[in-house]
Design a protein that fits this description.
Number of helices: 15
Helix content: 10-25%
Strand content: 25-35%
Distance between the termini: 78 Å
CATH topology of the largest domain: Rossmann fold
CATH architecture of the largest domain: 3-Layer(aba) Sandwich
CATH superfamily of the largest domain: P-loop containing nucleotide triphosphate hydrolases
Number of domains: 4
CATH class of the largest domain: Alpha Beta
Largest sheet: 9 strands, antiparallel
Length: 604
């Protein structure tokens, strides 16, 4: 059992892509966690398959390194705003944070959010000016902007006197002063030992811990992870679980695990300051208090910021239902979503009154919801998803909607286009700067619904050269009606296989979403119309065969490759009367209801 004085618990926080996971790779390597010739992949902490594919961190993950006589528990956190619930949840487990700032970009929107959370909890950050090796790095500017951000967020005098260090997470070195010779990350390890406080807690007091994250093991069931606040715990000890309603139950601890590098290792006992995983409490939930049976107490629940976007999960009712997935019934969907509700408290999952065909899921953004949907489709579920809606609330009789702080970086010649786009979406510009390299940096306050469907347009409008990031800022009075999608869609009027001849005749009407040989059905959206109205079309129309054949009489069919949607793009794209049909291998769009009258109206 480690003395609390020799433990350091830290979390790495930053804006997305500022190098948290890459820095952690080198901290682990230089902490001698891996064997000498062990092959270590890049971003080794991103173990979840979607994290590897998307190149982002989705779930907070724990690791541990030993340096000198000290045990350093490190938590890697997500940088994307949609997963900020993961950050809020784990900050209570640590006593210090490493705040990574890109030495070229400086603080960004997510930096503001994670820093404000850390400051509110009284944590004193260590600022790491990362990517110091980049050609246009300006660490002095980044440091000044960081200090301004601390001031703006109301940091205390002690927090304003933050220690800072320069680093290159990718190259694996850090130094205290510019001009020092870059060698390794030992200066960062030393700064953690000196500046990060040891965890509070007394080994002689009764055991006390709060479950901050959950995991599941096939052999021992549900497991609770958290920092031991007081006392110590041994295998086979009996503890009392106090749930959010104050109900008490006693349980025997069957397994205690700690972290070492990438592995969870079984240990016999643990004490105050340790971050551990406890098994043997089958119904444990996030926020539950685990305490000694001799002294039963209840800690305040873990509270997270409220979700801002909701979608409805519906039973897939398309003609292709069941052809691709295993789980298609409402019972299976409900069971899976209720299981998610227990492990992921940043999602809000609720039944809809009077409806047995849909469940509402609320989250922080389209990506937050898309990760859940992607996980379900990989598990064999088929589901239909409605258009996302913002979650509004009423304050003193005034309807309020969520607003987001939007950070935009674009080449100067695209700035007018972006300003015009966001103004039409009820955005308010807050700042504008033009750098000597011709890069325009802008800050906007935009309603969340104004950003829905815009990110794809933004990339097109800036020729892929723009960067747009956003984070929830506040609720503000409803901004009024807003223009939706500018173009209508092409809707199939029959079922079968799309063919080259039929699609060739359609591509003059707009852009296509299907290719020859794809299965289509009546009501399925097969393309985007060039005009603002919907159009019913025949994508399976075949060329009539005749006996006459002559050189040059047959058209040469050349088709433009179809437009393929990712899950987030599809959810963003659809209108109110459309659904995204998600199966293990396909993402299709379809009209919600298409009656005979609708077809005639659309055809005119």
């Amino acid at each position: 059992m480690q003395n609390p004085e020799n433990i350091r618990n830290i979390a790495i926080i930053a804006h997305i892509d500022h190098g948290k996971t890459t820095l952690l790779d080198n901290l682990l390597k230089q902490g001698n966690i891996f064997r000498e010739h062990e092959k270590v992949p890049e971003r080794v902490m991103d173990s979840y398959d979607q994290e590897k594919e998307r190149g982002i961190t989705i779930f907070a993950k724990h690791t541990c390194v030993y340096y000198k006589d000290y045990k350093i528990n490190i938590i890697d956190t997500p940088g994307h705003a949609d997963f900020s619930g993961e950050v809020e949840r784990v900050l209570g487990m640590v006593n210090c944070v490493l705040l990574l700032i890109d030495a070229q970009e400086g603080p960004m929107p997510q930096t503001r959010f994670v820093l404000s959370q850390a400051l509110k909890m009284g944590l004193k950050p260590i600022v790491v000016l990362n990517k110091i090796d980049r050609p246009h790095a300006n660490p002095d500017r980044a440091l000044n902007l960081t200090f301004d951000l601390f001031m703006e967020l109301g940091a205390s005098d002690e927090q304003l006197d933050f220690p800072y260090i320069y680093a290159s997470g990718f190259n694996g070195y850090a130094y205290d002063k510019i001009g020092d010779e870059p060698k390794d990350l030992m200066p960062l390890f030393e700064m953690i030992l000196k500046k990060a406080p040891a965890p509070t807690g007394n080994l002689d007091l009764p055991f006390l811990m709060q479950a901050a994250t959950l995991s599941y093991d096939d052999y021992v069931g549900r497991q609770a992870c958290g920092r031991i606040l007081e006392g110590k715990i041994r295998k086979n000890d009996t503890v009392t679980r106090v749930d959010r309603n104050g109900n008490h139950t006693n349980h025997k601890i069957v397994k205690i695990q700690g972290h070492l590098g990438l592995k969870e290792i079984e240990i016999e006992d643990a004490g105050a300051g340790d971050i551990v995983v406890l098994s043997g409490i089958p119904e444990v939930d996030i926020g539950d208090t685990l305490c000694s049976t001799d002294k039963v107490v209840q800690l305040p629940p873990i509270t997270l910021a409220e979700p801002t976007v909701s979608v409805e999960f519906l039973v897939n009712t398309s003609p292709f239902v069941g052809k691709d997935g295993k789980h298609v019934t409402m019972n299976k969907l409900r069971e899976r979503l209720m299981r998610e509700k227990k492990a992921n408290i940043s999602l809000k999952i609720e039944e809809l009154a009077g409806r047995d065909d849909a469940i509402r899921v609320c989250g922080r953004g389209e990506l937050h919801l898309a990760v859940l949907i992607e996980a379900m489709r990989r598990e064999g579920y088929e589901v239909a998803i409605s258009k996302p809606k913002v979650i509004t609330k009423e304050v003193d009789g005034v309807l309020m909607e969520p607003m987001e702080r939007v950070h935009v970086e674009v080449p100067e010649n695209f700035s007018g286009t972006v300003i015009d786009d966001l103004s039409r979406r009820k955005g308010e510009m807050r700042s504008l700067e033009v750098s000597e390299h011709g890069l325009t940096t802008m800050q906007f306050l935009v309603p969340t619904r104004g950003l829905m469907g815009y990110r794809n347009d933004f990339l097109t409008r800036t020729s892929g050269l723009g960067v747009l990031t956003s984070i929830f800022e506040t609720f503000a009075p409803w901004k009024g009606d807003m223009a939706g999608r500018l173009r209508g869609v092409l809707i199939s009027n029959s079922s079968g296989k799309a063919n080259g001849y039929g699609l060739f005749n359609l591509q003059g009407r707009g852009s296509l979403f299907v290719k020859p040989g794809d299965d289509v059905y009546e009501g399925m959206i097969v393309g985007e119309h060039a005009r603002d109205n919907d159009l019913v079309v025949n994508a399976i129309k075949a060329k009539q065969l005749t006996n006459v054949r002559a050189s040059g009489s047959d058209e040469n069919i050349v088709l433009t490759p179809p437009r393929k949607f990712t899950l987030e793009q599809a959810i963003d794209y659809i209108a109110d009367d459309e659904l995204v049909e998600v199966t293990p291998n396909f993402i299709r769009l379809r009209k919600l209801h298409l009656t005979e009258i609708d077809r005639k109206r659309h055809s005119r």
